[in-house]
Write a structure and sequence with these properties.
single chain; Aminopeptidase; 20% strand; six-stranded mixed β-sheet; four-stranded antiparallel β-sheet; Alpha-Beta Plaits; alpha+beta
């Protein structure tokens, strides 16, 4: 009964095919939260697959109906061995993005896990079924080896993350006392690179906004009116160019952070962004000048034009359009006020002569930003545990570049948040041919078993500060 024997047991669990069998069974559930007809699959996944798996491990399981009508059910599994022991909360989501079956490569199906070389294809293989399955299997491994966990475990699985996690905030608020823990240790998203284990501590936020120039009803013949009527597309293009340069530098101080904290900059100095063979090459001339790649995507704000429309792009005609719109986004880090962005942009546009450009926050596409300080004791503990298991120092990202509902755990529940992802950026997440890499699955199972084993050992930085 040792740490080494537990990690060896986890390795056999993967090598002998038991983990892949569990994952294949879970991928087969068509848990598309964006498809109303798939809603029964969300309930079935929790009731038929996940709940029995936890119950076999001695967890008490409850499935909650979502307090928001558009949301799917959620499951909470609890194993309380001793109230005086450390308590870890975990999270995962059982829903997936649309299957898009007709767009997958011949021979592949989103609902059948299929191996090709070191890749396992299937919807949810990377996001998020493999990831929470690894953590569940690691808990089972520790129990099998030690006869107990040696700590208390709570595991929350939702089924609406791909549609914005409706109801998750309400559940965390309502069940705050029941979800009380010392730390969140969860898995979602990609590693910094396929070959380097990664810890991240939060996520950038996102604010989507709509820019509109609406000058007149309808379009008018460009031969008769060209040179007489202002073109809204041209006006909007120049307005956007006043916000961000052609090299990607943001020009509006009011939508930028004041600086990158020293602890964040220090952590990012050890995080090289090097795309793999299946990923796009980085445009190093783009973005904030003088910043490293990691600082640009993990430590700073970006302003992105996601869509631009004027006239009829699908069938252009010789007419000056009356209206132009752009759907844009600011990705932002913690410790900034996202509600100040639209007023700052309004002030900027007015000052630069663009009073006829309207800007408003979009109804969808808002995520909060969170970030645990890289110097936090839980971060050091987790990094040391992972390095002890696999002999490689993990990359420590203060936050990922994308967004996830971490504010529910960091802010509402008041927890230090440690995320250990088990995928990589080239996994085709949200696209056809989604896949996960076998070496990452195997290593992830080893790492999580080591982390869970160490939670029962001396030196765990328990900080019981949340109410």
């Amino acid at each position: 009964m040792t740490r080494e024997s537990a990690v060896s047991r986890a390795t056999r669990h993967f090598d002998e095919g038991a983990f892949i069998a569990d994952l294949a069974r879970r991928v087969a559930y068509r848990t598309e939260s964006q498809v109303p007809e798939s809603r029964p699959q969300l309930s079935a996944y929790l009731a038929e697959e996940i709940a029995p798996s936890f119950e076999r491990l001695g967890f008490k399981v409850e499935i909650f109906e979502n307090p928001v009508a558009t949301g799917g059910p959620m499951l909470l599994a609890e194993r309380i061995e001793d109230p005086q022991l450390p308590t870890v909360l975990s999270y995962g989501h059982g829903d997936v993005i649309r299957g898009l079956a007709d767009q997958w490569r011949a021979g592949l199906s989103p609902w059948e896990l299929k191996q090709e070389g070191n890749r396992y294809y299937g919807r949810g293989s990377a996001d998020n079924k493999a990831q929470h399955s690894i953590n569940m299997a690691a808990l089972a491994t520790v129990i099998a080896e030690r006869g107990k966990l040696g700590f208390n475990a709570k595991f929350l699985i939702e089924t609406g993350e791909e549609v914005g996690s409706p109801g998750l905030q309400e559940i965390c608020t309502r069940e705050k006392r029941r979800l009380k823990a010392d730390v969140l240790i969860a898995s979602d998203g990609p590693r910094l690179s396929a070959h380097r284990p990664t810890i991240y501590l939060g996520s950038r936020g996102a604010v989507n906004m709509d820019f509109t120039v609406d000058l007149r009803e309808g379009a008018h013949h460009s031969g008769n009116w060209g040179g007489l009527l202002a073109n809204p597309g041209v006006i909007l293009a120049h307005a956007l160019a006043s916000i961000v340069t052609r090299e990607g530098k943001v020009l509006v101080p009011g939508i930028l952070p004041p600086s990158i904290p020293d602890s964040v900059r220090k952590a990012l100095a050890d995080c090289a962004v090097e795309p793999g063979a299946d990923e796009p090459a980085v445009d190093d001339w783009w973005g904030e000048p003088g910043f490293s790649r990691a600082e640009k995507v993990f430590g700073w704000h970006t302003f992105e034009v996601l869509a631009f429309r004027t006239g009829n792009p699908d069938n252009p005609v010789n007419a000056i359009p009356g209206r132009a719109t752009a759907h844009c986004q600011i990705r932002f880090v913690a410790d900034t006020d996202p509600y100040s962005f639209v007023p700052a942009l309004r002030k900027h546009l007015d000052a630069h002569g663009y009073a006829n450009v309207q800007v408003a926050q979009a109804k969808k596409g808002f995520f909060h930003a969170t970030r645990l300080d890289p110097d936090h004791p839980w971060v050091q503990w987790a990094a040391e545990s992972i390095e002890r298991t696999i002999g490689t120092k993990p990359a420590v990202l203060p936050n990922v570049g994308g967004s996830l509902p971490n504010e529910c755990f960091a802010d509402t529940l008041g927890l230090p948040t440690i995320w250990v992802p088990h995928s990589y950026a080239g996994c085709s997440q949200h696209a056809p041919d989604e896949h996960v890499l076998a070496p990452i699955l195997r290593e992830g199972l080893q790492m999580m078993t080591g982390l869970y084993w160490d939670l029962a050992e001396n030196g765990v930085p328990v900080c019981r500060t949340n109410a």
